[in-house]
């Protein structure tokens, strides 16, 4: 972190070598994002070049007073640049089969939820539809409705709450646009019980008391675990 900040400080002072080094050291990050946009009718190298433009913008616009990792700030900038290019060039197209699968998936998800009395997971919906879970996830992602940090997870009295609202610290208030890849990484770092708690609280929208009943612990223990998990996730971000 200190190494990166030092390079950014030099880059802001006009040091082209430092700027070039930052680009080189973050090449892997750009490619990681670019891979998500393969098979969109654009050459991988072209997407990489567009992503690099986003990286350069992130380097130039990064405020040294931000209390976040540079990569956390850079990811949405890179993604935004690629999406803007694909949108402006009319390259973002979702096949009819994926749209139909996603539509059937949402209907099945709703019907199964009423039957089970809770929100079903992707695996359960896929099993009900007799399709592979990966295929269903791809359809949801392609139509832009996959659960993300910014999709509302709780609504009451006209107000909405997102998982990003829970994760963001005051210093990160303007940096809530985190990429879905970070959420996957964060959840993967949790143990089975912790992931279950987060799923029940923020995706199945259960109360702490309801979660406690399912996990066999008290509401107070759920509250303490939740605070501990969210604190750990913030620190990793």
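Q: What amino acid sequence fits the structure above?
A:
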């Amino acid at each position: 972190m200190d190494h990166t900040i030092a390079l950014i400080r030099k880059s802001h002072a006009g040091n082209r070598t430092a700027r070039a080094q930052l680009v080189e050291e973050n090449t892997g990050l750009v490619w990681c994002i670019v891979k998500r946009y393969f098979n969109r009718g654009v050459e991988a190298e072209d997407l990489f070049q567009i992503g690099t433009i986003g990286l350069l913008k992130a380097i130039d616009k990064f405020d040294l007073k931000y209390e976040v990792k540079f990569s956390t700030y850079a990811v949405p900038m890179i993604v935004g640049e690629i999406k803007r290019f694909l949108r402006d060039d009319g390259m973002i197209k979702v096949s009819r089969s994926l749209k139909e699968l996603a539509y059937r998936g949402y209907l099945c998800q709703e019907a199964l939820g009423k039957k089970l009395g809770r929100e079903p997971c992707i695996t359960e919906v896929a099993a009900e539809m007799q399709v592979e879970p990966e295929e269903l996830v791809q359809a949801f992602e392609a139509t832009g409705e996959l659960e993300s940090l910014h999709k509302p997870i709780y609504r009451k009295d006209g107000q909405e709450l997102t998982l990003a609202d829970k994760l963001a610290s005051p210093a990160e208030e303007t940096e809530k646009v985190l990429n879905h890849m970070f959420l996957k990484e964060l959840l993967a770092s949790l143990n089975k019980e912790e992931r279950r708690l987060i799923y029940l609280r923020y995706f199945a929208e259960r109360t702490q008391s309801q979660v406690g009943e399912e996990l066999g612990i008290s509401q107070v223990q759920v509250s303490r675990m939740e605070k501990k998990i969210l604190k750990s996730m913030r620190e990793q971000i």
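Q: And what stands out in the fold?
A: The radius of gyration is 20 Å.
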